[in-house]
Structure formats: C-alpha cells, structure tokens
From TrEMBL:
This is Bifunctional uridylyltransferase/uridylyl-removing enzyme. It comes from Labrys wisconsinensis. NCBIfam families: PRK05092.1, UTase_glnD. SMART domains: HDc. InterPro entries: ACT-like_dom_sf, ACT_dom, HD/PDEase_dom, HD_domain, NT_sf, PII_UdlTrfase/GS_AdlTrfase, Polymerase_NTP_transf_dom, UTase/UR. Pfam families: ACT, ACT_ACR9_3rd, GlnD_UR_UTase, HD, NTP_transf_2. GO terms for molecular function: [protein-PII] uridylyltransferase activity. Belongs to the GlnD family. The lineage of its organism: Bacteria, Pseudomonadati, Pseudomonadota, Alphaproteobacteria, Hyphomicrobiales. Has four distinct domains: an N-terminal nucleotidyltransferase (NT) domain responsible for UTase activity, a central HD domain that encodes UR activity, and two C-terminal ACT domains that seem to have a role in glutamine sensing. Modifies, by uridylylation and deuridylylation, the PII regulatory proteins (GlnB and homologs), in response to the nitrogen status of the cell that GlnD senses through the glutamine level. Under low glutamine levels, catalyzes the conversion of the PII proteins and UTP to PII-UMP and PPi, while under higher glutamine levels, GlnD hydrolyzes PII-UMP to PII and UMP (deuridylylation). Thus, controls uridylylation state and activity of the PII proteins, and plays an important role in the regulation of nitrogen metabolism.
C-alpha cells in the first residue's frame, strides 16, 4: 500500500496488536455486549486520533502530499479490518459459514484510489453473494455503527455483483465508482467476479459514451466554479486545474486504455516520461495543499481561502524571496500546477480523438470555415495545415526550421478563425527553447505578435493559448515574470497574467461595440481614437511590473519604452503607451476619491492628461482595467463617476473654463430646474434656488435636483426640519438615502453609524449645506437585493434608523459596537494605515485621505473622530478595494478655513490613525 521508502506502517497503526487488544476486551466484557462495544469504540477512536497525529507530524516534516494521502488511507484500511474482525469474531460469529455467509468490503471513489484527505468521506461497497443470509446485512450494519460512533462520514452501498453490473450500465456515477473499486478484505472471489464482469459487460465498447459523460461533467463543474483556473481563492478539489481534473483524466484513460495505474500510460504511449512526471508532481502538490487545508481547519474544507493561504504557505515551507512574499510564491506554484493539469488534459483529449473515443470539438470562440474532414495546406504558410477544422503543423520539424513559426502558428489561428490542434500545441511546448534573444528581436516575429495583440478577431483567446503553451512568457520575458502571480489581497480576483488577458478581452469587446448598456461613453468614443495600437499595447502592459519593489506603474512605463520599439511602434506611439501605463490608475483614483465639483480637482487632472486624445485613451483603458479585475467589481456607479470626470475635463482640455464659465454653468443649472418645476410659483422657485450655494448646482444632476426640491418642500411643509427619502438606481447598482436635517459637525457620523448598524456599505456621500443652516445629504449604499421592492424596504429601515439616531432615540456607539462585533476575513491581511493631509488638492478645503484595513464600522469611527476634532465635512468619497479602505474627506475648521497649522494637522493625523488600532488598544488596555 505504501511506498517502499515510506516509514514503518506499524508506527501508524499496529493492527495485530489492535486486534489482540480488542480480543482482550471481549474476554473482559463477556456477556455484556454494550459495554464491549463502547470499550472497542474508545480503543479505535484513540488509535485513529494517534494515527492521524503521527501522519500529520510526518507530513509537516516531509511535506509529501500523495504519501500523506496514502498513509491516511492505510490507517483507514487497518481500522476497517480491525472493525470487521471485532464484528465477525465477537458480534456476529459464523461458526460454520455457508456460501451465503461471505462478503467483500470494497473501497470505492477516492478511497478506492488508495488516497484519503484528513476530512474525506469513506466510500464503501459491501459486496454480497447472490444467495445470502441475514449474516451479511447484520455484519454490514454493525460495522457502519462502529464507524459512525468514531465520527466518520461513511458513504456506503450493499449490493450483489449482479446489482453492480445492472446499475453500472445505466448510472455513470456507479460505473465510475466500480472502475476504482479496491478490495480491502473478505472473499476475493466476489471481487474478482465483479472486476471481470464489469470489464466484459460494461467497459468494453462503451469508451466513447464514458468519455463524453466525464468530459461533460467536467465542463459543467468548471462553468459552475467560474470557468477559470486562475481565481485567487481556488477550490483545490473541484476547481479548474484541481484534483478532480486529474481524477477525471485517470478515470478516462483507465477506461479507454484499460490500465490499472497511471504509470502504465507511458508504456501505452499516452504520456512521455516527462509528462508522466508532471502528472505525479501535480498530484503530489495538490494533495499536499488539500491535506494541509484539512489539517489546519479540522474539516473537509476544499477552498484555498485567503485566511488559509499564508498559514499553508508557511506549513509547506515557502519563504519570502525575489520581491514576492512566501504566500505569493506558494500561490504562484499553485497556478503553475493548475496550468500543468490543463496541459495534460489537452494531451489526453488529443489522444482520445485519435482513438475516436471523444468527439472532435472546436475551442472557445473559434468557428472554422473549413470542412471538418478536409485537410487543407495553407498556401501562404506551407508549414501549416488545417485538418479536422483545426490548425496543425505539417511535420515535427516546423519550428526547428524556422522559429518564427512559433509566433506564426498563433497568428494564423487568429487570421483563419480556427482552433489549434492539440498535437501542434504539444510540439510548441517541446520547442520553447527556440524562443531566444534572436527570435525576440526578429522583426517578422514582432510584427506577427503585434497583429495578434491588436486583432479585431479574438486577441484574448489567442493570447491565452500562447500563455498556456508558454510562448507568451518567453517571447515577452517581462510578461513571463507575472505568469501565475497572484496579489495577496481581496480586490484582485485573478492572477496578474489572467487579469491582463481579460483586460485585452474587455477592450476587444468595446472595440466591437459590445456592452454599450454598461459603458455607453467608451463605446461612443472608441471609434474616434487615433492611437488604437497604442491603446492595445498599453492595456497589455499596464500591470506587467507587478510584484517588484518599485511602483509598478513607473517600472511598467520603463518596460514600455524598452519594448514598444521592438514591437515596431513609432516614437510617438511609444510615448503614449508609456504615459498610459504610468498613469493608468489616475483616472479611477480621481473619479472615486476626489470631489469632481471642486475646480482644483479638474484642473489638476487636466494638467496630467494634457490632451483630449489621451483623455479618451485613459478612459477606455480604465474601464477595461476595472472590468477585468473580477465579477462584481465594475458597476454603474463607477461608470457614472468616470463619465462625470470625463465630461468635466473635456471642456478644460478643449480650451479651459473661467470663473465666468462657472457662473454661467450655475445659472444654466438653475434655469433648467426652474423649467423642470413648472408647477411651482415664481416665489417658491426663487426661495428654493436661493437655498443652495454654487457647488450644489454644479455637482448634482438635474433629475436628482428635481427630487431634492420636491423632497425639501414636502418636509418643510409638514413643519419638520428632519426627513429622509429613499430611491433605487439599478443601472448604477446603488441605493440613495437622502437626509434633510439641521446641519452640525456630527451629522455625517450619525448617518454613517446608522448605515454601519444596518450592515449597509456606503460607496459615496454627496453633502450639501443650505444657506439657511440645513444639510441636504445623499448617501449612496451598495444594493443588496435584486428586486426594487425588497431593496426599498431595506433602505426604508435604514432611513428610519437614521431619523431615530438624529433625534437621539438610539445610542449609536452601543448599536454599532454590537452589530460590528464579528470581524470579516480581512483580519488575515495587513494594510499599514496612512493619513495624507493636503491643502493643494482643493481651493477651499483641506483634503484628508485616510487609508487602511477595512472593517465594519470604520467609516463611523472616522467620521466620529473628524467631528470630535471640530471639523466640518464638506464632501466625502468612500472607496473600498478588497480589504483596503480609501476614504477622502474635504474639510474645514468651524470658521470655514483650511487646516494649515502643523500641530493641528499632527493631532488630526494621530486621531484618525487611532481608528485603525486594535479594539483593546483603543480601550486603553
């Protein structure tokens, strides 16, 4: 069962000694079967626990995943044999057994493969003869009760050989289980009968059926899991590139090639010795990871979550090195292994097609214009042929004769709209050493690569094939540095290389005119840009310097200046690419973290951008970047912020606007509101317009101005000065809560506290003060429910709590503390808190930029601190990037002046930093 090099099995469990101890207990408790059962369970439980402790200790020393799984399987085998001996000797003894009083206990499923994780289910088949007595069922039941008493989760079935064959014909799950059946104990004749009949009556002539079913299962599982092997919290067992994929490969090959062990696949001609080593190494790594998860959590957890990654990296010996933290090195290894599993899958599928055990299928978006059964040699590229609808090489010397063919292959696949033949991809992976400095500098190779990158067909798909084959990382070495690199944070959903490829896909989708409902402005301006090539190259390079000690935007710009001339870009195009890479975050940062209605914000941003063409390019790159981060990161709210910034900046770049323009804009906004409120009297309109200062007219869109006006009139007409209103905005994915209340420094703090108590996530705050001392604040919170009715009920509860808090009917500190006592998974991350105090970012306000580890109630604590410092908050901009919060407040002192004194700034900084301190530190413990 165990490798010869493994440790002494008896150190895990000595079954002979265990059975002797049980026999002694049977004599001691003769005549008292219940006492005997309890004593036996205690002995077995102690044996199981000690065995697992031994196995875990060995695992922490040698870190051998597959060996650990086999050791656990051996421990389970010996326990089952001891349980069987106890039951048949002392519970249901057959003194003169007949042919009906026999059985075979068979391991199936993962257990049948001879491997178990610490939290795995135990899948058993109790195989009984066709003619049986009550003895078999009694023994089975007694064994199961003992295992349940041990706390084990057992999947079991009691069947005859005939039952197994009949069910296997119609049930693919049962067929797979029997395929891996491994007898543990009992009558060997039954096991041999099952194996022989299963092979002859089920397996023969059904290979195509089985392969199709297993691949369909895999496809469904992959789609359910997110259809990517590069998710930063992967499922080790069920995810793409995980253990289940390896299992599926072996099930299929075992069924088709009729082998009993994966090592036989080399002799069968499926794998080369190197590829088989890859299989073994991938299996060992994935088993090590899975066993580590189960040991650490104490449960059958299969997801490699952020809060486990660091601990597992330490357990498996990954240290900080080369600018990467140990946890990032571990996860990079994980994703490289997942890629290897994908390569092995392609090899197996190609071989199955050749045996006609798998239907031929096209890949991804490719639609072959060629007949499926026709072989066509490409006239312009005689080294390549299209056969069975896919691009292949004419012989194995294609790349050796001309290394440029390693790039040309992918260019032709994109140009002709055909998928790549697995044989060609396999040859590519064996020819990677041909990609050297000479090929990287080859003008034709670079021309072809640039054509792929900027293709109007399917650049993301082709680049991904190049990456999976290893070509992309060798041809662009700086890209190779970020292959399989994850960033240990909750914001990025994919590895860096996967993010870059998805960004190209998002850009290509915009280029085709898709997704206009989600980002209409970029679709409108995309056809007007002059530097399409520069935009694609910048998108491909914008995060290429991640994982280095320096700012990745600055280093990325240097890489762009070095790489672009090699790709054939002009000096002007190179400058544009380098600028876009260096500034690729500035638009999203400005839109989400600055007050766009503040003239200084627009002037500063416009000075950075400098031209309308660059503004267009930066907007499209920013949208592509955000949308490629992961599901749910892009929303209509971010789109609206970016569009507002674009529209505010465009006239500045077109010629600038003066204070006269600003006054004219205010007057125009007031006239638009007057026209929209045609049912109001002139006196009412004059009085309402006089309530608002100029910034209000510039930063609030007309529809919201109209709602505000009617809301304020209704509240004041009722004789109140406090009121709330809620509205949903499905396009932007937010819910609006508008509050009218007497202005005071703690107002935003109270509003934030009410939201924190309700678990509502604030994404922005639009704050206005009227000329008669009222505050008109609109808070935007993330939408929680899909249906408006449900969302409005939720928002209504939050609004009522706000009113109660503002009336002093709720003690917010106590409520917030009780509602936010449980901390989220962000505790696993480390974000050094920082407070930037700047007087240049705004003409009239001091800007406080506060960043640190996000947590429930943080915004409440920050706004409470600001109000306790006697500061007025004129504008707040709330952003969360995974576990990192970046909140920006535009403030003045109580006289409306900026904060310029250094001691006062230091006091503000210290007070805000204290909000990030541990609770016990803040309590003075």
């Amino acid at each position: 069962m165990l490798d010869k090099a493994d440790r002494d099995q008896n150190l895990i469990v000595d079954r002979m000694a265990l059975e002797a101890e049980i026999d002694a207990l049977a004599i001691e408790h003769e005549g008292n079967p219940e006492a005997l059962r309890l004593a036996v369970v205690q002995v077995l439980k102690a044996t199981l626990q000690q065995g697992r402790r031994t196995i875990r200790a060995w695992f922490e020393e040698d870190r051998l995943g597959t060996v650990c799984a086999r050791r656990l399987c051996h421990l389970q085998d010996e326990l089952i044999r001891a349980i069987y001996a106890y039951v048949t000797r002392w519970v249901y003894t057959a003194h003169n057994p007949t042919s009906g009083e026999r059985m075979t206990v068979v391991a199936v499923g993962g257990y049948g493969r001879g491997t178990l994780a610490p939290g795995s289910d135990i899948d058993l088949l109790f195989l009984l003869p066709a003619k049986q007595t009550a003895w078999g069922e009694s023994v089975t039941e007694a064994m199961l009760y003992v295992m349940w008493d041990l706390g084990q989760k057992v999947g079991h079935a009691t069947r005859t050989v005939e039952d197994c064959i009949r069910l296997a014909r119609s049930d693919m799950t049962i067929r797979t289980a029997i395929l891996e059946a491994r007898p543990i104990l009992g009558d060997t004749a039954l096991a041999h009968d099952l194996a022989g009949r299963f092979d002859k009556e089920v397996v023969q002539s059904t290979a195509a059926e089985f392969v199709a079913a297993k691949l369909a299962e895999r496809d469904a599982r992959v789609v359910k899991g997110g259809n990517s092997r590069y998710k930063v919290e992967p499922n080790v067992k069920e995810g793409k590139g995980g253990l289940r994929d390896l299992n599926t490969l072996f099930w299929i090959t075992k069924y088709v090639y009729r082998v009993k062990d994966p090592s036989a696949l080399v002799a069968a001609g499926l794998f080369t010795p190197r590829e088989y080593r890859l299989f073994v190494e991938a299996e060992d790594f994935l088993w090590a990871t899975r066993c580590a998860i189960h040991f650490i959590t104490g449960r059958p957890e299969e997801r490699l979550t952020f809060d486990l990654q660091r601990e597992i990296a330490d357990l498996l010996g990954y240290a900080d090195r080369g600018g990467l933290r140990g946890v990032e090195r571990f996860m990079k290894h994980y994703f490289l292994v997942a890629k290897d599993v994908g390569d092995l899958t392609a090899i197996v599928c190609a071989a199955l097609e050749e045996r006609q055990a798998k239907p031929r299928a096209m890949l991804d978006r490719f639609i072959a214009p060629f007949r499926r059964n026709k072989r066509v040699v490409l006239k312009e590229a005689r080294d390549f042929v299209v056969e069975t609808g896919r691009l292949n090489v004419v012989d194995d010397g294609v790349f050796q004769r001309d290394p440029v063919n390693l790039i040309r292959l992918f260019h032709l696949a994109d140009r002709e709209g055909v998928a790549l033949h697995p044989d060609a991809m396999r040859l590519v992976t064996h020819s990677l050493k041909l990609i050297d400095a000479n090929l990287r500098e080859n003008r034709e190779a670079n021309r072809l690569f640039l054509a792929i990158l900027t293709s109007r067909n399917a650049p993301e798909t082709v680049l991904r094939r190049m990456n999976e084959a290893g070509v992309l990382g060798r041809f662009i070495p700086d890209f190779g540095r970020v292959v399989a690199m994850m960033q240990f944070n909750m914001y990025h959903h994919y590895t860096v290389d996967e993010h870059l490829l998805r960004a190209i896909g998002e850009l290509a989708e915009i280029d085709r005119g898709g997704g206009g409902d989600e980002h209409p402005l970029v679709n409108e301006i995309m056809p007007t840009i002059q530097n399409r090539t520069a935009l694609y190259v910048a998108t491909f390079l914008h995060d290429i310097a991640k994982g280095r000690p320096e700012d990745h935007s600055v280093v990325g710009a240097r890489i762009a200046r070095r790489l672009c001339p090699r790709l054939g870009l002009s000096a002007a195009e190179t400058d544009t690419v380098a600028w876009l890479v260096e500034q690729h975050l500035v638009m999203s940062t400005t839109a989400q973290s600055r007050d766009i209605s503040d003239r200084r914000t627009i002037e500063t941003f416009a000075a950075t951008v400098q031209s309308l063409e660059r503004l267009k390019l930066l907007l499209i790159l920013t949208v592509s970047d955000i949308r490629a981060v992961g599901p749910g990161v892009w929303n209509g709210w971010k789109g609206q912020l970016l569009r507002s910034l674009f529209w505010e900046t465009e006239p500045v770049l077109a010629g600038g606007h003066s204070s006269v323009d600003r006054r004219a804009s205010v007057q125009q906004a007031q006239d638009e509101l007057r026209a929209a409120l045609a049912d109001w009297s002139a006196a009412e309109l004059d009085a309402y317009v006089a309530r608002h200062y100029p910034p209000y007219w510039l930063k609030v869109e007309l529809a919201r101005k109209v709602r505000h006006a009617r809301f304020v009139r209704a509240v004041l007409a009722s004789g109140r000065s406090l009121g709330t209103e809620v509205a949903t905005d499905a396009f932007r994915g937010v819910t609006e809560l508008t509050v009218l209340a007497p202005d005071h420094p703690r107002l935003l703090s109270v509003i934030a506290g009410a939201c924190a108590a309700a678990g509502a996530n604030i994404v922005d705050a639009q704050i206005s003060t009227t000329t008669d001392g009222l505050a008109l604040d609109t808070i935007f919170v993330s939408r929680e429910f899909a249906e408006d009715q449900d969302e409005l009920r939720r928002a209504g509860r939050i609004a009522r709590d706000m009113e109660r808090a503002l009336r002093g009917e709720i003690l917010l500190p106590d409520v917030v503390a009780s509602r936010t006592a449980s901390r989220p998974r962000t505790k696993v991350f480390q974000v050094v808190p920082d407070v930037v105090i700047d007087n240049d970012w705004s003409l009239r306000h001091t800007v406080l930029e506060v960043s640190g580890l996000d947590r429930p109630g943080l915004l409440y604590d920050l706004t409470t601190a600001i109000s306790s410092l006697n500061l007025n908050i004129a504008s707040a901009h709330i952003s969360t990037f995974g576990e990192k919060a970046v909140d920006v407040f535009y403030v003045t002192d109580l006289t409306g002046a900026k904060i310029t004194a250094t001691p006062r700034q230091n006091a503000i900084r210290a007070r805000l930093l204290a909000a990030f301190a541990p609770e016990e530190a803040k309590a003075g413990k």
